[in-house]
Specification:
This protein has 19 helices and 28 strands. It is an alpha/beta fold. It binds uridine-diphosphate-N-acetylglucosamine and 5-amino-5-deoxy-1-O-phosphono-D-mannitol. It comes from Candida tenuis (strain ATCC 10573 / BCRC 21748 / CBS 615 / JCM 9827 / NBRC 10315 / NRRL Y-1498 / VKM Y-70) (Yeast).
Length: 696
Amino acid sequence: MCGIFGYVNFLVDKTRGEIVDTLIDGLQKLEYRGYDSAGIAIDGDKKGETLIVKTAGKVKALKDKLDNSNIERSTIFDSHVGIAHTRWATHGQPMESNCHPHRSDPEAEFVVVHNGIITNYRELKTLLVSKGYKFESETDTECIAKLFKHIYDTNLKANIEVDFNELVKQVLYELEGSYGLLVKSSHYPGEAVGTRKGSPLLVGVKTEKKLKVDFVDVEFPEQNQEVPVGSAKNGELNGFIPLSGAEASLRTSQSRAFLADDGLPMPAEFFFSSDPASVVQHTKKVLYLEDDDIAHVYDGELHIHRAKKNAGDSTTRPIQTLEMELNEIMKGPYTHFMQKEIFEQPDSTFNTMRGRIDFENHQINLGGLKAFLPAIRRSRRIIMIACGTSYHSCLATRSIFEELNEIPVTVELASDFLDRRSPVFRDDTCVFVSQSGETADSILALQYCLERGALSVGIVNSVGSSMSRQTHCGVHINAGPEIGVASTKAYTSQYIALVMFALSLSNDSISQQQRHREIIDGLQKIPEQIKTVLKLENKIKTLCTEHLNDQRSLLLLGRGYQFATALEGALKIKEISYMHSEGVLAGELKHGVLALVDDKLPIIAFATRDSLFPKVLNAINQVVSRDGRPIVICDEGDTVLSSSQTTATLHVPTTVDCLQGLLNVIPLQLMSYWLAVNRGIDVDFPRNLAKSVTVE
Ligand code: UD1
Ligand code: M6R
């Protein structure tokens, strides 16, 4: 969804052109999250001048606009702060005036980029308008920029010279809602401040010399410096100005990590971002901000401040090393990220299992769950909660949880679960499944369950994401970054992680040993079997061209384990090719859907042989006797229907029943991809959708 990128160079000479290129490149790495406009703010030639360039549309359009502007590229800056943003509209249409960065005033004394939603922006706006501020956009964000100036000026009038991070604290006291925020100001040249609450933000650090320590101390205020909370609802901002000038401007510490041997400042570069994907090419050293942290970069140092000290607050933030490689987020030989990710599945599924399954001894060891397994086994029920594709991976694995463990399992869509305010108890285990770990509905559901004392388990791809950090324990699915909006490799890896979870829970059961061995042997073969299914690409491509391209609607029939596959296949087709498609439980056909069947409606039927095969065959025959000519997905060597009764048959290798969905979903991923390509759709960025849905 929205993306933040910021670049600070200190004692490292860069031309303005190089700075602009770094910002644009950073935004391009965020494109996969989905957005509708983009913008940057950099220093101008005159002292205190800030240039803002923004546009609705793609980052490429912003780049063209910059290239065609008369902005001088050769000017050299030895210290500079540039901020940039990709926006996904929430308040106000995607148009230039609503794009970020937003400014405090025509001189752009303060410029901000923001992810999230300020819920009290109306009250703030009313107040600021009454003070004479002229708003230029419909966004909630603009009130933040104006608020910075208003509070800065009020301090100034009171002769208080306030430090940038103190100013941020005073502004934050007035804000309600969620934010990832990055601020630049002509009053604080060379300084940048970033902060977050409920929206991710990290800082990448690049220095020539090794840092002294791999953490940054958290700086807390003295008790008498804490700022009382105020609110614009009172009709006045009253949450600030408690400091005397001397206290406010005091810079008390030097960051231990950045101490140089000779006592002189070190050349350094800093990269603020809402996503490590845009930082990894510059540096692997990153610090993830926690909610309410204020990261203040000045004089080549990174400081972390907090407005308040609570008992138990951690006093340091680690500087971690990113394990993600740049080539992991590039397309390689593929045309689209989605295609690359579909073809990565032999590797990504292997990586999910790597180091966790001892295939020889049929043992599973999930490091992140081990200590929690006894507590989970004691729970009264397991509630799996997720959205979209992640929800389908829960549906696909629910029955293996139920089969192996005698614990009731329910599967919930996060939004519906919250709407119902479903009862949750201390003896429940709530499993949150998410690729991004940042999906707002799932995070809200997680917070809801945490408040009620349930044990929370995350099955998450993004290490360091909000969900991975806020759950009690969990499993990283290790599928590597997924960039295409359509989730493909995350689905198969989530599926495997959940199966491994179900197996770990029932590790002790003697009666299940044979079944365990069978499933573990099956898992071992999955990566190779996926390779075999991927060979169907050309056949599927032809099938799309000859039979499906011009269709308006499609039904997918599945039963048992394959119901989830039908739903997931239908979602893929909908979101990428914009063709209406519906996953139908084969047993429900006769209860209404059969009325749609004729010789024209395309139908895909999952007919791999598990215990429910006879019932699926029954449904398929009902379709055929109404002149339907389904595309049948069945086991290698099987002939479910004669060729005259089908449009096509796609053969997939056979595996254990509870794993068959891992193979059966792949033809559908390929089909959705080729339908979209044939229709000229921007596969990685389908309309109206974002990769990471960080709004409710
Ligand atoms: C961990 C390391 C991995 C290393 C392996 C060696 C990390 C991220 N992983 O993998 O690099 O090779 O040990 O033994 O450092 N967690 C949550 N919620 C989630 C996901 C995970 O709380 O949604 C927690 C887990 O409980 C665990 C930690 O995060 O404490 C790491 O989880 P995971 O990466 O799955 O653990 P390992 O596979 O042991
Ligand atoms: O990041 P998450 O797994 O929490 O995202 C959940 C859904 O938004 C996501 O799976 C969505 O349905 C995909 N675009 C489907 O391909």
